[in-house]
Design goal:
Blueprint: E1 10-18, H1 22-32, H2 37-42, H3 52-70, E2 77-95, E3 101-117
Antiparallel strand pairs: 1-3, 2-3
């Protein structure tokens, strides 16, 4: 199998330990995947979900990383990948009968937003 390299150049932003269920984050990331930078910023503003603010911060961070680290223009960026993964659990204990403790696992998530440039050419550093 040949190793195919993509000619797309981009940056990523990573949100760790977000205390929201994966389904609630995925309904936002599924909408912004493949959108341009400007459209991906506007879409979460009009959704009635709490996590939209977190996702729009990650989009801004990925665009700033692409601008500062690679010198890419924000108008040429699009969201190439938006992924939600499981992360560590917050472990708590709840008191139960006869002095016992019952473990409570509070799951956290990791969100990865990758933005690539759709302009092919030389990039000067």
């Amino acid at each position: 199998m040949k190793n195919k390299k993509k000619s797309e150049i981009g940056a990523r932003a990573l949100g760790k330990n977000i205390r929201v269920s994966a389904i609630k984050i995925r309904r936002i990331t599924d909408r912004i995947r493949g959108c341009s930078h400007g459209e991906a910023l506007v879409l979460p503003e009009f959704m009635p979900y709490k996590t939209c603010h977190l996702i729009s911060q990650l989009i801004l961070s990925a665009a700033a990383n692409a601008n500062n680290n690679l010198g890419l223009n924000k108008s040429n960026l699009f969201i190439s990948e938006a992924r939600v993964e499981n992360s560590a659990y917050l472990k708590r204990f709840r008191p139960r009968a006869q002095g016992r403790g019952y473990p409570i696992k509070k799951p956290t998530r990791k969100v990865i937003i990758k933005s690539n440039s759709n302009v092919v050419g030389k990039i000067e550093r």
